[in-house]
Automatic annotation (TrEMBL):
<dbReference type="InterPro" id="IPR036250">
    <property type="entry name" value="AcylCo_DH-like_C"/>
</dbReference>
<dbReference type="InterPro" id="IPR046373">
    <property type="entry name" value="Acyl-CoA_Oxase/DH_mid-dom_sf"/>
</dbReference>
<feature type="domain" description="Acyl-CoA dehydrogenase/oxidase C-terminal">
    <location>
        <begin position="233"/>
        <end position="381"/>
    </location>
</feature>
<dbReference type="GO" id="GO:0050660">
    <property type="term" value="F:flavin adenine dinucleotide binding"/>
</dbReference>
<feature type="domain" description="Acyl-CoA oxidase/dehydrogenase middle">
    <location>
        <begin position="124"/>
        <end position="221"/>
    </location>
</feature>
<dbReference type="InterPro" id="IPR006089">
    <property type="entry name" value="Acyl-CoA_DH_CS"/>
</dbReference>
<dbReference type="InterPro" id="IPR006091">
    <property type="entry name" value="Acyl-CoA_Oxase/DH_mid-dom"/>
</dbReference>
<dbReference type="Pfam" id="PF00441">
    <property type="entry name" value="Acyl-CoA_dh_1"/>
</dbReference>
<keyword id="KW-0274">FAD</keyword>
<protein>
    <submittedName>
        <fullName>Acyl-CoA dehydrogenase</fullName>
    </submittedName>
</protein>
<dbReference type="Pfam" id="PF02770">
    <property type="entry name" value="Acyl-CoA_dh_M"/>
</dbReference>
<dbReference type="InterPro" id="IPR009075">
    <property type="entry name" value="AcylCo_DH/oxidase_C"/>
</dbReference>
<dbReference type="InterPro" id="IPR013786">
    <property type="entry name" value="AcylCoA_DH/ox_N"/>
</dbReference>
<feature type="domain" description="Acyl-CoA dehydrogenase/oxidase N-terminal">
    <location>
        <begin position="8"/>
        <end position="119"/>
    </location>
</feature>
<dbReference type="Pfam" id="PF02771">
    <property type="entry name" value="Acyl-CoA_dh_N"/>
</dbReference>
<keyword id="KW-0285">Flavoprotein</keyword>
<dbReference type="GO" id="GO:0003995">
    <property type="term" value="F:acyl-CoA dehydrogenase activity"/>
</dbReference>
Length: 384
C-alpha cells in the first residue's frame, strides 16, 4: 500500500527546519518585512545548515540529498515566512540548478560550491518587460564577437539578483535564428559586476518584502564565450524543464503558507474571546479552519506525488502543474479565511496572517500563472 510517512532522515530534516523557522525566523522576520530589508543573517544560517546544498552532490559542496528534501524545507519555512522561503527556493531551483543540470564540469566546479554553501546566490533571468507569461518572447540578444558574448536587453522580476552576495544571473537571450526562421534562444551566465550589467532599483512590492527582486539591464555586456550554459539554441527548452521542477518547489512553499494560516488560526481561536467564550467554540470558525486544513492537506498530497514522480525519473509535467495550481489556490484561500478569522488584527502586518495575505497572491502568478498551469494540464491530457 502507498505510505506517505516520512522516513527518519526526511523527518529529522523537517523537524530541524521547523525548529529553525519557529525559533530563529519567526521572532525577527516581521521587522525585516516592515523595513523591506534582506535578512542576510538568516540566509547565512540556512547556508550553514546546508539547506542551499540539499539536492546537490557532495562533490560540488552539496548535501547529497534530493529535491523532495528541498521541498520539505520550503514547506516548513513557508509556514512562518515566504520571503525567506522564496530566497531559498530561487537560490536552489533557479540559481544553482540550471548550472548543475546543464553546466560543464568547469562551470559546476567554479560556481556550485559557493551557491551550495549559501555564501553566494544566483538569479534566473527569463521574464522580460512586456513578456509576462510568454517566456518565448525573448528580446534580449547575445551576439558572439570573437571569444565573447555581447549581451543587450533587459529582464524583469528577477529574484536574488541584487543582493551583496549575488554572484551571477543566468539569462536567456536570442543568439541567432533557426532554419525555420524562429528564434535560437540560448542561456548565458553573466557574473555580477560585469561592465554593462546594471541591477535596477528594487521593486516596491505588495508582498515578499524581505526578499530581493530587481529588474536587470544589459548594455554591450561582454562575457566569455565559455559562459554559454548548455547547448547553444537549447536555452528555452532548458529553462522550461527547470520551471517544471520549480513548480513543485513553489507548491511546497504554498502548502507551507496554507498550513501556516491553519497554525495561526488554531492558536488565535483558542485565545480570542467574543461574546463571553473562545471563538474556536463557534461552528462558523470551526468550519472555516476545517476547510483550511482540508486545502493544505490535499495540496500537500499533490506536491508529494509530483516530487515522487520526479525522483523516479518519470514524466511529471502534469503533476507539477496540478500541484502548483492546487497549492497556490489553497494558499490564497487560506490567507483570505485566516485574515477574516483574525478580523481587524488580520489587517495588521505585525500579525503573521497579514503578511501571509500579502504574500499569497504572487504564488498564483510566479513560476507560471494559474492560467498557464491549466494550459499545461490540458495539453498533457491531449487537448491542443
Amino acid at each position: 500500500m502507498i505510505d506517505f510517512r516520512l522516513d527518519e532522515e526526511y523527518e529529522a530534516l523537517r523537524k530541524t527546519v521547523h525548529d529553525f523557522a519557529q525559533n530563529e525566523v519567526a521572532p525577527v522576520i516581521g521587522g525585516f518585512y516592515e523595513r523591506g530589508e534582506f535578512p542576510y543573517d538568516l540566509v547565512a544560517q540556512m547556508g550553514r545548515m546546508g539547506l542551499f546544498g540539499l539536492p546537490f552532490p557532495e562533490e560540488f559542496g552539496g548535501m547529497g540529498g534530493d529535491y523532495f528534501a528541498l521541498c520539505l524545507a520550503l514547506e516548513e519555512l513557508g509556514r512562518v515566512d515566504s520571503s525567506v522561503a522564496v530566497t531559498l527556493e530561487a537560490g536552489v531551483s533557479l540559481g544553482a540548478m540550471p548550472i548543475f543540470r546543464f553546466g560543464s564540469r568547469e562551470q559546476r566546479e567554479r560556481w556550485l560550491p559557493a551557491l551550495c554553501s549559501g555564501e553566494a546566490l544566483g538569479g534566473f533571468g527569463l521574464t522580460e518587460p512586456g513578456g509576462g507569461s510568454d517566456a518565448g518572447a525573448t528580446r534580449t540578444t547575445a551576439k558572439l564577437d570573437g571569444d565573447e558574448w555581447v549581451v543587450n536587453g533587459s529582464k524583469s522580476f528577477i529574484t536574488n539578483s541584487g543582493t551583496d552576495i549575488t554572484r551571477l544571473v543566468t539569462v536567456t537571450a536570442v543568439t541567432g535564428r533557426k532554419a525555420d526562421g524562429g528564434k535560437e534562444i540560448s542561456a548565458v551566465i553573466v557574473p555580477s559586476g560585469t561592465p554593462g550589467f546594471t541591477v535596477e532599483p528594487k521593486y516596491s512590492k505588495v508582498g515578499w518584502n524581505a526578499s530581493d527582486t530587481h529588474g536587470l539591464s544589459f548594455s554591450d555586456c561582454r562575457v566569455p564565450a565559455e559562459n554559454l550554459l548548455g547547448e547553444r539554441g537549447r536555452g528555452y527548452a532548458q529553462f522550461l524543464s527547470i520551471l517544471d521542477e520549480g513548480r513543485v518547489a513553489i507548491a511546497a512553499l504554498s502548502v507551507g503558507l496554507a498550513q501556516g494560516c491553519v497554525d495561526e488560526c488554531l492558536r488565535y481561536a483558542r485565545e480570542r474571546e467574543a461574546f463571553g467564550t473562545q471563538i474556536g467554540s463557534y461552528q462558523a470558525i470551526q468550519f472555516k479552519i476545517a476547510d483550511m486544513e482540508m486545502r493544505a492537506h490535499t495540496a500537500r498530497l499533490a506536491y508529494y506525488e509530483a516530487a515522487a514522480k520526479m525522483l523516479r525519473g518519470e514524466p511529471f509535467k502534469r503533476e507539477a502543474s496540478i500541484a502548483k495550481l492546487v497549492s497556490s489556490n489553497a494558499a490564497m484561500d487560506n490567507a483570505r479565511d485566516a485574515t477574516q478569522i483574525f478580523g481587524g488584527y488580520g489587517f495588521m502586518n505585525e500579525f503573521a496572517v497579514g503578511r501571509f495575505y500579502r504574500d499569497a497572491k504572487i504564488l498564483e502568478i510566479g513560476e507560471g500563472t494559474s492560467e498557464i498551469q491549466r494550459m499545461v494540464i490540458a495539453r498533457e491530457l491531449g487537448l491542443h
